[in-house]
Specification:
The protein is of the alpha/beta class. The C terminus is likely disordered.
């Protein structure tokens, strides 16, 4: 009997909603693509998106940017990060996070992760003491949230400012409180593989008028900041407008137009992702050879990807497992690969930052696999994928033949 294989595409997203396509066509026919090129008396798509996302998040202010990484950079600069200042962040994250710190002139100080893929609070406290850092750029990497109450208590006790990287937690919560509402500012991504899709794009939220006024100028508002509808009043810019450089990282009208209908549908999409996540999780949890990060009851997560650690495999065994899955149509990212691959990299490949000893994270990443869960997959697809993963784990090898009749 031929081995069962999966025929789907792990990088294929759902189509942009028809409402968004229709609005995009209107925008293109109108020719006004720059966010400030709007008729008198109109707010414009970008300003409306900012209003709507601020309302969704429960934030006072929102700024739409060219990318999530740009939002991180602008947040750090608007905070007033000093050149060479240490910034605490996760050892387990993706390269745009340390990249944003470097771009803002800071020095990343990496904090160990736990097997549940969240920040190790014990190591965080030690790194606060040893680094002198006054800022934590917290990456909710792959949607896993630390105990936000414990974390915020620690940061408040130690006088540490929090900026959240919510690229993987748009739509998520902790005890019903939106991810991104715990710190001075939060940054979100609308890149293709995130929870709303404009190809590239970012959103910055904050309740702090000074930070947001600086961010608006930094993003490239010129003296048109009064056209923002989810930003501080004009008096907040009195000195800031003349003291702050223009980094030109605005979101354009076309991207905002296709994001607004997706934002209105986000909570329904979150429920669909979580259905798929749980279908895979339920099967993978049956294997004693795997460890799946614990999702605490307090965490309202978005299961747009799934991660697991293999308990016993060495490096060659992990490579064989990944290869066997690929041959049967299941695309896994492995954080133990010796060189960066696609979007996946480890701290030891970020050679523009100071090398740091992170033995706990290294041991975890050596056994860590990561898999996207596109909404183009059905629940039946998800169960098949999980079964293939378990079969490949049990016996490395086999090539992809004709689909079994049961498929």
């Amino acid at each position: 009997m031929a081995e069962r294989c999966f025929r789907g595409n792990f990088t294929q997203q759902e189509a942009i909603p028809e409402e968004a396509i229709a609005r995009a066509v209107e925008v293109l026919r109108g020719g006004r693509l720059h966010r400030y090129n709007v008729p008198d008396g109109e707010a414009g798509e970008v300003a409306l998106l900012e209003q709507e996302f601020a309302a969704y998040q429960g934030s006072r202010y929102c700024l739409a940017c060219a990318s999530g990484g740009y939002a991180l950079h602008v947040a750090l600069k608007a905070y007033g990060l000093a050149p060479g200042a240490s910034v605490l962040t996760n050892a387990f994250t993706l390269s745009p996070v340390p990249g944003a710190i470097d771009n803002a002139g800071g020095r990343p100080v990496l904090v160990e992760t736990t097997e549940d893929l969240v920040l190790d609070l014990g190591d965080l406290e030690a790194k606060i003491d040893s680094s002198g850092a006054r800022l934590l750029l917290l990456s909710h990497m792959r949607g896993h949230q630390a105990d936000m109450e414990r974390l915020c208590t620690l940061l408040e006790t130690r006088g540490i400012v929090l900026i959240e990287d919510c690229a993987h937690t748009m739509g998520a919560a902790w005890k019903g409180r939106r991810s991104g509402s715990f710190g001075l500012a939060a940054c979100f991504s609308t890149q293709t593989y995130k929870h709303i899709n404009s190809g590239e794009g970012g959103l910055l939220t904050s309740d702090d008028p000074d930070l947001m006024a600086r961010a608006v100028i930094l993003s490239g508002s010129y003296m048109l900041y009064g056209r923002h509808k989810a930003a501080p009043p004009a008096e907040a810019y009195a000195d800031i407008a003349l003291e702050t450089p223009n980094y030109s990282g605005r979101m354009d009208v076309l991207r905002a137009a296709i994001l607004r209908p997706q934002l209105r549908d986000l909570d329904r999409q979150v429920a669909r992702w979580n259905e798929r996540y749980r279908a895979i999780e339920a099967l993978l949890q049956q294997s004693p050879a795997l460890y799946l990060p614990v999702r605490p009851a307090e965490e309202g997560y978005v299961g747009s990807s799934i991660q697991f650690l293999v308990r016993e495999l060495d490096g060659s065994g992990c490579a064989a497992f990944q290869r066997a899955c690929r041959e049967r149509g299941v695309a896994l990212k492995w954080f133990g690969e010796p060189l960066p691959s696609g979007y996946t990299s480890r701290h030891d490949s970020w050679r523009y930052i100071q090398a740091q000893s992170l033995p706990v994270s290294d041991a975890i990443l050596a056994r860590l696999f990561d898999m996207r869960i596109p909404l183009t997959f059905s629940l039946q697809d998800c169960r098949l994928i999980a079964e293939i993963l378990l079969e490949c784990l049990a016996a490395f090898g086999g090539t992809c033949g004709e689909p079994a009749a049961a498929q």
